[in-house]
Amino acid sequence: MDEIYRTYYTPVYRWFLKKTRHKEDAEDLTNNVFLAIFTYFKQDIKVNAMENLIWKIAHNIWCKKAKKYSDEHNNVSYDESLAIATDDESLDKIIYREIIDDLNEINLTERERTSFISYYCHDLSIKEISALLNTSTNNIKYYLFNARKKVKERYNG
Predict the structure, then answer these.
(1) In the prediction, which pLDDT does 69 show?
(2) pTM (2 decimals)?
(3) Which pLDDT score, from 0 to 100, does residue 74 have?
(4) How far, in Å, CA of 17 to CA of 51, rounded?
(5) How big is the chain by its Cα radius of gyration, in Å?
(6) Which of 41, 67, 112, 139: disulfide with 135, CB 3.0–4.6 Å?
(7) 144-156 burial, b for 16+ CB within 10 Å, e for fewer?
(8) 123 close to 96: Cβ distance less than 8 angstroms
(9) What is the DSSP string of the chain?
(10) Cα gap 13→91, rounded to integer Å
């Protein structure tokens, strides 16, 4: 558990800090994520992909916080990124949509950036992106792979 905490605390905290823009709230929400993970371990539930579990829990905690805030302030509309994912929308797409604003700080090529935004924001298929960029689907897969790698490096320190 210590290794998981050391590895994921900072990226999760940064994500919540960007969402809340408030240190104490970000710390509370991050701690709630690790409390939930600790609960999973105590229940002896098998976890196949720890990173996916962490981000899924973080997203759910954020959604609950945003809904509570929205309900308290009678605000009908709130950021569309708070909507809970449907079965056909992967967790990766939710997370990557959250970091689109930071893409200028990440050293992506123009093709990597276009592929990334087209795939994760505009929900274009790899085939559609290859037609858009007039290149092969294998090249698009390569651009997406590189873009994801650079994004992960940025957020994992």
Answers:
(1) 66
(2) 0.46
(3) 46
(4) 19
(5) 17
(6) 139
(7) bebbbebbeeebe
(8) no
(9) -HHHHHHHHHHHHHHHHHHH--HHHHHHHHHHHHHHHHHHHHTT---S-HHHHHHHHHHHHHHHHHHHHHHHTT-----GGGSPPPTTS-HHHHHHHHTGGGGGGS---HHHHHHHHHHHTS---HHHHHHHHTS-HHHHHHHHHHHHHHHHHHH--
(10) 18
Rounded Cα distance, 43 and 64, in Å: 23
Which mean pLDDT values do the consecutive 10-residue runs of the chain (157 residues) have? 86 87 88 86 75 85 76 47 43 61 76 85 85 92 89 73
Q: Which two tokens stand for residue 147?
A: 């873009």
Integer Cα distance of 127 and 136 in angstroms: 8
